[in-house]
Each structure stands twice: as C-alpha cells, then as structure tokens.
Amino acid sequence: MKLYLREDSPKEGKQRQSLRSGSKIMLFVDFYNINMKEFTPSDTKAYGTFEDFFSREHAHGSRPICQENDQSYAVVPSDCRVVVYPSVYVGQKLWINGQHFSMTNIFGDPFIAESFADGPVASFRLSPQDCHRYHSPVTGTVRWYKQYSGEYFNIDPWNLRSHIDAVSSNARCAICFETDRYGEVMFVAIGGSGVGTVNFREDVRISGSKIRKGQEIGRFGLGGSTILVFFQKGRILFDQDLLSYSNERIMIDVETGMSLGQLRQKGNGKHGNVDGAEKQGTSNGVKPNPSTEKGDVIITQRPKKTRASRPG
C-alpha cells in the first residue's frame, strides 16, 4: 500500500500535465462553480494543461491582504479549509490520533520541535478546486528551508483521526521564518493524495531572504494538499470564529489574505483551554453550531468581509 501511494501520486500528476487534460478544465470549472473572474487568465481555453489550471494565478485585487502593512496581524496563506488549535495538545485531542504523530516526527529534529512545543498551530487543507498557490502568513526573514521525502496519503479529517500518521509520513517541505512580532514561525507544506510535488519559490529557499505577508512563496502539484503553520507558545491569538468552529470540529472555507489572528497582547486571552476557545480572538460575525455532532466533519463558509479588514 505504501509503495503504491509513493509511486502512483507523481505518475498521476504527469498524466494530468498532458495536453489532453486541458479539455476537461471547463467541465471541472462548471462542476465546482469556480468564478474565473477571480483568476488570470480568466478564459479556461488559455490553460494548455490541467497542471497549468491547477496552479492558476489570482487576478489582481481578488485576494486583498488583511491589514497588509501591520505586522501584528497574520493571514490565511491559501484558498482552503482551515482548523486552528490554541496548542498542539488541543489539536491532538480534537482531530489527530496518529499513533506516531509528534512534533519531532514532523520536523525530524527534537531541538526544532522543542521551539514550538505546545504552541498554537493552524491546519489548512486544499481541495482539487482550489488555487494551489500559497503565500506567507507573516512578514519575516527566512532562517532555513528543508525538504522531507515521504508518502502521499490523503490528508483529510478522517485520516487524521485514524492510525495513519499522514502528517509526519507524507512528503513535505518546511520553512522557518524569523519575525519581529511572532518570533519564529514554521510553515510546512505537505503533499497529499495525487500530489507529486511541493514547490517553494527558489528565492524563498535561501536563508536571509526577506518575505512580506501575503507574498506568494510556492505552489503544489496536482491533488489535495495541506499546510501547517506553527507558532511559538503565547505568540498569536487566533480569530474567535476560527477557534470556535474548530472546537466544534467544523472546518471553515477561507480565502488567501483573510485574517488568521493577531499578536497576543498581555491579558487578551488564554491559550490551551478547549472549552474556552470561543472567548478568544475576533468573532468576525460568525458563530459555531452548538448542535454539531462530535463525530461529524462539517465545512462552513466564512464571510468574505474578513479578507481585507477586521471589525473594531
């Protein structure tokens, strides 16, 4: 099974890169009701292959960056579904049951893992209909870049709660950012089922490179994929709507540049309390569904107003 997952995923990607796959783009757009006005080029006939379409570019202005010039705000890195955890411990309690899941297994280094021990983490899951480019959630400087080989297990809520350790077993790349406000921030791009490549921009892989919030830093190959962003303990206060929904095991449909959270100030919230998650951060006008069954996985839409601004 593992051999199949390792070898078939890149093969599938090569097949979809062929010119023949381009004829299916319009059917794909219609099926998923994708608004092509939000991308450039907007004409599906301009994409020669499905691979070209998969990593299509956002049209200028279609994804405004929340508080672009204020480094105390972090943003969503991609069009995706998101869940956030005030601590890694909470994430394990709510979603992740992998037998071998640990920070050390993800990073392959106990010293790196210790830097983010029990810190807040956000998980972003991209689906095939999403634009598979990803952007920096913060402004900072690249400390280091590392690539990890691995499998191509499908990363979804069902697998995360199974005995499959997809998070730390899959092929992935990690970049550590040094920031003025958040200290170190770890960005991990993980290949999923159907993904043969995880590509960071070449300039982003260089230690010392300056990265601004919202800047494109890479893209995935074909298939569903996942991004994990780790913060050091006590640094970020995730938005209240994200925390509340995540506490109810509800994934939120979000877009690149939307608000993720803000720098934690003294006295503006406590992390690590699952039951109190709804009292943290900014609500953005979204309330959780108290009737949600704990065994279900539900996706809800976040208001688009959270793209560029936050309620006062």
Architecture overview:
Residues 263-312 are annotated as: Disordered. The model is unreliable at 1-8, 158-164, 270-296 and 307-312 (pLDDT under 50). The protein starts with a helix and ends in an 11-residue tail after the last strand. The longest helix is centred in the N-terminal third of the chain and has 15 residues, at 2-16. The protein has one domain. 46% of the residues are buried. It has a 9-stranded mixed β-sheet with strand order 11-7-8-9-13-5-4-15-17. A hairpin with a 3-residue loop joins strand 8 (172-179) and strand 9. It contains 9 helices and 17 strands. The protein has 312 residues and is α+β, with helices and mostly antiparallel strands.
Task: Offer a few descriptive terms.
decarboxylase, three-stranded antiparallel beta sheet, disordered C terminus, alpha+beta, 312 residues, disordered N terminus
